[in-house]
Amino acid sequence: MTKIHFRSYIHKKIILFPQRIDKDIAEDDPVRLLDALVDNLMLDNVYKLYKPSGRKPYHPQMMLKVILYAYMNNIYSCRRIESLLKRDIHFIYLAGYEQPDFITINRFRNRVRKEINNIFTQVVLVLAAKGLISLDIEYIDGTKIESKANKYTFVWKRTVEKNRAKLQEQIRTLLLQVDDVIAQDNAAKREGVEFTAALLDEISEELNKSLESLPEPKTKEEKQAVRTKKRQTKPGYNLQIATENQFITDFALYANRTDTLTLPSFLESFKSRYHRYAKTVVADSGYGSEENYLFIDVHNMEAYVKYNYFHKEQRPRYTPNPFSPASLYYNKEQDFYVCPMGQHMKRIGMKRSLTSNGFVTYSVRYQAERCDGCPLRGSCFKARGNKIIEVNHQLQHYKQKARELLTSEEGIKHRGRRYIEPEAVFGQTKYNKAYKRFRHFGKDKVNMDFAFFAIAFNIGKMCRKTNLKELKAVMELLLGTFRCSIQVYIGYLKPYKSFYMKLAA
Asked: Based on the structure, what is the number of domains in the chain?
């Protein structure tokens, strides 16, 4: 019988001269791009966060690489990262055999929570230097992401606090639909129990459990009712992002649930990062308001921002309401409207309104001279007296301008592109990357966590678009030829001037 010879197997053998850690890592592996990129980031402000005395800390570059690589691979747990530092060759390579524990990893994230935004900006500027993005356009959208925060910290917390009595009544109504909570509800009515924040927490939990046990809704109305109930029990943040070529170029977190109120401050956030506004802004109808259009107009941006009913107007069978102010003839010189029966509607005054964001709007009021006996009165309006309309001329002007831009050839292109920009990023974030819930308490820590995610997201996408040769070209660009093009960016990137000049030296 022929003897079988196996390769030598001594799993506890001692190697006098260790091999390279990265021997088994492919040359075009994303971990190499991450390693090279972080090595060339400006981390001076991060180094200042450490004290010169005491025990030597782990190197910030190493910690940053390890955490970013974890986020690139859908790993957000510090305990999981600690485990991989002992068994995964990629993590071992980045850490150089260092093995910080989960507490140290978490402390590092908290330590850099104010500086991680600057690191995110630097990475975006690298993408711009490579030509992957231009920073001239913002595709903007928002989404709600649940938070680990207390159950009473809703996205619409101010509304809840303002309308506590209505909320209590809604909760009582909802409790009547849950068999196992009826007793608690009746007891509350008999004993006159006050609904406190703690009690609201418990009721929220009970309501969530009861919603899970309810039969599957069949009709459209039943599905809408279930969605409404679920929204009342979910805390979270309104996450706004700007994208270009599906790279995240900016992000911000808001406590209000309405996208309309976030646009001006979000555009300012872009300017604070890159020291200029984007030339073009593309957003859906959730952002179409007078305040937003005015802000965009004042700062000379081209706005492809939809308004309410824009989609409805584009339908082939759409027929405008002949009695709405937008359908009536307006004589601008003499400032009057003409109703469908040919009667002049003269100006009678102004109306001043204040939005929830503190923005003041003005509407002009026009009244018909005589509506008695008009054959169209029943279709036009049913109130007593003569018909009065209110027209916000400023808003009408902005809507007309937006309509012309949106229906132009360039506007159609941007509208089609918007669906594969921020919405695609949200899809990848929540489903491919499994980032569906914030895992920290406090807005500053939530912002820090998403900054890590956004950096890792951009680097991961950069890896998929960059092979090894292009990677070398990127680093050559940063270290060599970038000195030629740095002057183009230096005008609005003054805070990073020393960083780029250091790279170009």
From this structure: 4
Please spell the DSSP secondary structure of 384-422, one letter per residue: SSS-EEEE-HHHHHHHHHHHHHHTSHHHHHHHHHHTTTH
> Do 213 and 267 have their domain in common?
no
The 3-state DSSP class for residue 307 equals: coil
**Left, alpha or beta for 245 (phi > 0: left; psi -120 to 50: alpha)?**
left
Domain shared by 411 and 347, yes or no: no
Report d(CA 344, CA 294) in Å as an integer. 30
Mind listing the pLDDT tens digit for each residue in 307-359? 988 888 888 888 888 888 888 999 999 999 999 888 899 999 999 998 888 89
Distance set, CA 201 to CA 18, 198, 238 (Å): 57, 5, 21
Residue 102 lies in a domain: yes
Query: Is the domain of 76 the same as that of 212?
Result: no
Using CA atoms, how far apart are residues 200 and 121, in angstroms rounded to an integer? 40
Distance of alpha carbon 322 from alpha carbon 430, whole angstroms: 44
**Is 306 domain-assigned?**
yes
**Residue 126, CA distances (Å) to 47, 81, 281 in order:** 21, 27, 22
| Token reading at 216 | 């599957």
Q: pTM of the full predicted structure? A: 0.75
